[in-house]
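User: I'm preparing a small set of examples for a lab meeting where we compare how different chains pack in three dimensions. I only have the primary sequence for this one, and I'd like the structure in token form so I can line it up with the others. Please keep the answer compact; I'll paste it straight into my notes.
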Amino acid sequence: MGLTANGILIMGPFIPQGIINPDLSLFFALLLGLGFGYVLEQAGFSSARKLAGVFYGYDFVVLKVFFTAGITAMVGLMFFSYLGWVDMGLLYIQPTFLYSAILGGVIMGFGFILGGFCPGTSIVGAVIGKADAMVFILGIFLGMFVFGHFYHVFEPVYTGHFLGHLYAYDALGISRDWFGLVMVLMAIAAFVITQMIEDRVNKAGPEITGQRPNYMVPAFLIIAAAFIFVLLPSERKSHLADAPPSILIEEVLNKQAYVSAQRIIHQIRNQRSELILIDTRPEAEYRRFTLPGAIHLTVKQIPERQWRGFFNDNSKPKVFFGNGSSGAMEAWMIARRAGYRNVHIMEGGLNHLFGLLFGEPTDSAFESQDMVERLDDRFLREARHYFLEGGASEKAAIPKPHIRAPEAREVIPVIGGC
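Assistant: Understood. Below is the structure token output for the 418-residue chain.
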């Protein structure tokens, strides 16, 4: 789960970090959904008149509730991320398609003013028996049917001008910290201005305005929290997800940190991509030669923010390698101390791998009574034949892949979202 238009669900980072059992994700989603619906009902969002009041100027409760929820969640996530409790790299951000975003905003705006509901609030209204909300839901399903049936017609607009996972602060060219402070100040200014508009439209007298609670203290606290975050260092020295040294020592001693050179040879020979190979040597050596399919990543790049999403993706093991084991060991130690999982070291490095492939074969293992040794020897003999005589050199000209930082990566369009 990630960000939705109607709320923020932060279950996403809790599942891969082991805080929430993945088998219970739907259960917690149900609880969050019930809670979200209850909050909408208590805020009066089941009333079409109250929702439409934003456009007529007599009731801005919708703007106030959503703006309050937004800045509260924003500031909370910023602090949780800084403390290492929530990994922002694991939050899913809807990709931006400019044409469909503009057109969808216009359509939803007309639907909001005409029907008095958005998709989420229509469900709340229908649950308590509002007939107009039920009609609105029927209209939603009708629109879904038309869009799905004629998707080939709408696709050029729906996927037009793809901008990727765009952050507002990146588009504006400012830091995330300053953007948070600006959003807090904008929210408070919006609260004051809309309250003045509401009082003028409703002709509220002193007897009404005098009974309102004073929000100066909460406003000051939220501004102070955002301003403090601007003054904090950009990175903490440690995080709760950092792996302790005892765990690292145990993984090295138990060989859990290593991937055998035989497994790398098997992947290269069969042209598979079960492992992501990461060359940690200097760039000049990488450009001179490297293993097929390997990417280049220096030790200094591993802790950088833009590579968090890459390392947090545990779908495939990532294997560091160098000429020997020292450079790969250093990269692995940094990655594991940063809390990244499913990272490994190629045992022995390139020197060991080339020794297995191009060293002089012996008959000792072939004549051994140990079945495992005989299978290993047979595998290496076939691999030597493949690399030396079987045409592997013809595949050496395959261009090296280039993995870009997550901010610049290409994303497959995702259908859905409200």
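A couple of notes for your slides: The beta strands are 3-4, 7-8, 96-97, 162-164, 258-259, 276-279, 295-296, 318-321, 343-346. The radius of gyration is 29 Å.

User: Perfect, thanks.
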